[in-house]
Amino acid sequence: MSEYDWQLGDLDLPAYLRRVGVAQRAPSLEALGELHTAHVRTFPFENFDVLLEQHPGVALKDVQAKFVERGRGGYCFEHGTLFAAVLERLGYDIERHLGRVGDASRAPRTHLVVTVVLDGRRYLTDPGFGMSLLRPIPLEDGAEDDQDGWPYRVRRIDMGASGAAWELYRLRSEGWDLMHTTDEVPVRPVDIEMGHLFTSTHPWSNFRRRLSLARHGDGQHTTVSVAGVTTRVPGRPTVRRPVADGELPDLLREMGVTLTDDELDRFLKIWPTLEE
């Protein structure tokens, strides 16, 4: 597909690089890893626009305005749309792929990842997941990578007539946990629009009923939901605590969520109605 199909001309690449604090470099695995880590540590994973019923959509110009200009974050269709465009403009050989979160026999294709080919080897990048990869992982059966204390694993599976698919696992205290299954079906802009439409409007979508807010920090990962604040540090027990009364506005700012006063007021009104 051409750059016009993906609206690459709408990307302000210098503004994005300034936002994530990374200099433009020629394509390489080291440069890709630096960019991936900077992205997931800059932009939170969040679904406030879905909960507030004001999502602008996943066109590149809208995602750029939200992430780069407003200093917000979003969910996978937004992260993946922006990251893929950045990589293409930087000269990387990339493909967009859709996946199923959790049980692939039941889940819809509502996750977006980006694969990259470097020196004849494929890598999975996944900047838009609640517990995102910090850097690319080889897209090879059995590949494992300990990412600053968080081990991940890739497994190839045979989908019969549909071809191969790729499972991504994260090692937790109880063992390897399946995150998502990505297929090899070619993706077009309309596929991302349709996935976003389901995720942002269908009553079955968790994003319509629950707050999903997560962010990688330096050496830790934090999530916020109605159930409370969860902090994970590699090698230490997971810490969970409730959200204190009146704490939410400051907590959102600490997580990098910059809501307007009107958005914050509306969110605080629906907060008690959200599911854990």
UniProtKB/TrEMBL annotation:
Pfam families in the cross-refs: Acetyltransf_2
One MF term in the entry's GO annotations: acetyltransferase activity
Which branch of life, at top level? Bacteria
Q: Which family does it belong to?
A: Belongs to the arylamine N-acetyltransferase family.
Its name, as the record gives it, is N-hydroxyarylamine O-acetyltransferase
Q: What organism does the record attribute this protein to?
A: Luteipulveratus mongoliensis
Q: What is the lineage of its organism?
A: Bacteria, Bacillati, Actinomycetota, Actinomycetes, Micrococcales
